[in-house]
Amino acid sequence: MITLKEARLCVVGLGYVGLPLAVEFGYKYPTIGFDLNRARIEELQSGKDLTLEVPQDQLMAAEFLSYTDRVEKLTKCNIFIVAVPTPIDDAKQPDLKPLLKATETVAGCLKRGDIVIYESTVYPGATEEECVPLLEEISGLTYNRDFCCGYSPERINPGDHEHRLPTIVKVTSGSTPEAAELIDKLYSSIIDAGTFKASSIKVAEAAKVIENTQRDVNIGLINELSLIFNKLGLNTMEVLQAAGTKWNFLPFRPGLVGGHCIGVDPYYLTYKAKKVGYRPRMILAGRRTNDAMGHHIAARIVKMLLQRKIDTINCRVLIMGLTFKENCPDLRNTRVTDIIDELREYGIGVDVHDPWVDREQALKEYGIELVDTLVPKSYDTVILAVGHKQFAQMSRDNLQSLRKEERSIIFDVKSLYPRDWVDDSL
Length: 426
Fold this sequence. Notes:
Helices cover 38% and strands 12% of the residues. It is α/β, with parallel strands linked by helices.
């Protein structure tokens, strides 16, 4: 077993999870950040991070960190940390292709005594059932004799500059007691908040996947309540504020549930549950409710347009915000597109404005051409979909000026504005 003094790290995948990790390790250990995207490597080598997760001064301060897209440069590393996306496919089934491809890359460099740590979200058992056999097959080495594995689930919250990697408790685990101890010490050396050593890799995997499943179910409940309150003519936020005066009431809010975690992770758990003969009910019910919110919002908008006798064929709608959450450029699994697609099916013209999003990426990922300038008196409906700080800072007059006429609609998905500024909200 290697020691921390001998550690030479490789972080595979330099996205929202991998880059902050590589930078923190790069302050203390020889570390290589590996990514197949050559443009991403060149961007980081120039001291820029387009995800806005790591400031330039922090990138430049990681003196032991280098970047590459060349696999042959990884052969001298002895600790490999895999931090690649684990999405779902069109059938809402786990898509492990990026994870297995990264595993193949690591396996080609694996040597006796090496350690492979996974951070990507998976279902309980995936590391040892899917990744370890591939590592053994390609490397010709034997698990827990020639190499060991670990799992330390990522807890990165994109766009959150208060809860950063060093300030969030890190769950760790290893495939042998010795590996678990070394992996825990490795993470402890960069995590100020401390670590929690799980009893097994499978426990650590399960802990990760239920974190976001719990949040998803709770948001699903609040979204369903908002649908009920709408039928009852009640304002959801007023009800939640009243209920929130009780000390143990949980402060969840209705809204769109997208991104690479909350809207995805539950499907990994339900997939595994079905494999072992249990059909989840509550988790999938929450998923169905949350996935339908874009349709619900669009339907309410269309109903309001008809009630106000606004011609849906010739009307114009402005969507403010495209990312999956506020104050970050992350477009992964954004559910704002559900509103856009639904409105366009009615023949409604939709403009989208988001100051955080790269225009080329929006066009490439979703075929959406962003508008840069908001022209007063242009829109029959304005939908605040994402609570970016630029939108929160808008005055009432600036917001109201976007209305084409007095009967035009302002709909606040995020309940960002005072009630008398808008016509409706979730």
